[in-house]
Amino acid sequence: MKLRRIIGLAAAAAIAAAALIIPSGASAASTFTGSYFGTGFDSYDWGKMEASDGWSNGGMFNCTWSKDNVQFSGGKMNLSITGNQWQGYKGAEYRTTQAYGFGMYDVSMKPIKNNGVVSSFFTYTGPSDGTVWDEIDIEFLGKNTNQVQFNYYTRGQGNHEYVYNLGFDASQSFHQYGFYWDKSSITWYVDKKAVYTAYRDIPQTPGRIMMNVWNGTGVDEWLAHYDGRAPLTAQYDWISYTAPGSGSSNNNNNQQQQNNNNNNWNNNQQQQQNNNNNWNNNNNSGSFQSGQKYSIKCVNSGKALDVNWGSKDDGANVLQYTYHGYTNQKWYLERQGDGSYVIKCANSNKVLDVAWGSRDDGANVQQCSYNGNSCQKWELRRVGNSYAIINKNSGKALDVSGRSTADNANVLQWRYTGANNQLWNIEAVY
Fold first, then answer.
1. What pLDDT sits at residue 276?
2. Which positions ≥6 away from 372 have C-beta within 8 Å?
């Protein structure tokens, strides 16, 4: 799933412009300075929350926001899509009046199940607030509510999407979803369990907490075609924000909100290591045979690890390329005494190497004559049927830059996130 990337550059520019569309009476949000905020949606929370009304984001949003589509009943908030193709559609959006910074964000919700629609919980700030466009998303695509999609934008740059398989249909009952955000990472949670962590290009700007439901247009590859069915309703039970270091100390009388703060997220750094991939630091496979050649293909692209132009030189660049069976796409995996592997190109007899022994994110990967340094040793950590390939010196993962699926995309090292551009299929070849 590619989220907004599939729309293309022209449409992406339109979406960025749409982020500037804001009702004429809007003003920049002040930043919340307390330790806890929560609301149980018994009624409209005047002064703290507001409903968008009478305007549209444009672009792929095929609806106008209507405050009448934000309703409260039985301790729940209902956000609805109404209307028809002749009179137009109306969506619903509800948001805080203040902006919130680093901390734990949670929601209990039940999204819409229907092709072509989105139900969301996210933070957003942008030019209308006098800031850059920073955003952190939890999005349910109505075409498949057995999945949830995570994404974020930093200074208007997205393409960080990750789809998580829930193992249940989110539209059938309330579940708790959230994310812990700090200056160096975002960790998303499902029912208080950490399931995915992102480390790259993390947004830094406080944003409003927002929820909306809307039907799309022109993005059928992403959302599937909207069939015009209405009304459609997503339900929200409660939301909360807890500042870093505040623990579970809140006096809100909503029992679920109290439970929300018992996530032990003060141990967040440890939880960040235990994401959905469940990879074990000691799970180095010993099944690879000495003298056997292997192809190493990126799960994200299906492209093979390749030495540029079949070079035999030290310092030749390593990239991904469609597999053709050339010897510069074949590798020996030579197990070392410490359980790590030296990965040697069959064409050049040079080994996979992190340039200059760097430990930095983004350091280039190349081939070089073997010298025994730890920057030339790699741990093969099983993740399902694939492998994360982790440099012994830096602890960083072999990574295809920018999650590219194109031929010639560069290969580098980056902090392990579990994304498919860091996972590799290793197969015996001849």
1. 37
2. none
